[in-house]
Amino acid sequence: MELTHAAGDELTAEQLYGLLKLRVDVFVVEQACPYPELDGRDLLPDTVHLWWPPAGEPQAYLRLLAEPGGGFRIGRVCTSEAARRQGWGARLMAAALELTGESEVVLDAQTYAQDFYRRFGFEPEGAPFDEDGIEHITMRRKVARARANHSSS
After folding, report:
1. pLDDT at residue 143 in the model
2. CATH number (domain holding residue 31)
3. pLDDT over 90 (residue 56)
4. Which structural domain, as residue segments, surrounds residue 68?
């Protein structure tokens, strides 16, 4: 099955509702973490939403944000309980990184998920921090050219 992606200003009301419902189900209900889910960035034209499946209720999702100083931020990575351990998170990450090209990408990972993000070239940066009662750590994937130059020296 293929993934779907759309810019924030291209989402239908039905798509947005499904994406927000999945995010709330995972982050607010399942993880018991009440936080301000609606941050004003979902409908921006430079926000890209990626999800699976293309039709019906979304089961896996992430959001790609353009960073003000350049590069991108990945966030809201989640999979419904029913769709876990089927590789959808990895497929979404690979698709998001394909969209970012050689740009630097940052994310704030729940600390238990660091190994998952390392598979995609992300490295921890700084100390862990509490975000809404869950320990996170910033992880960064450097510009691809810089990584290639570093590994060849």
Report:
1. 78
2. 3.40.630.30
3. no
4. 4-152
CA of 20: how far to CAs of 7, 97, 111, in Å?
15, 22, 23
d(CA 134, CA 20): 20
64 within 8 A of 99, measured Cβ to Cβ? yes
* pLDDT over threshold 50, residue 152: no
The string of DSSP codes covering 59-96 is -EEEEEEE-TTSSEEEEEEEE-GGGTTSSHHHHHHHHH
Four-residue CA torsion sign, 53, 86, 124, 120: negative
- Closest to 115 measured CA to CA, from 89, 96, 133, 97: 89
Count of the separate structural domains present in the chain:
1
pTM of the model: 0.86
Best CA proximity match to 15, nearest among 56, 48, 65: 56
Residue 151 has pLDDT above 70, yes or no: no
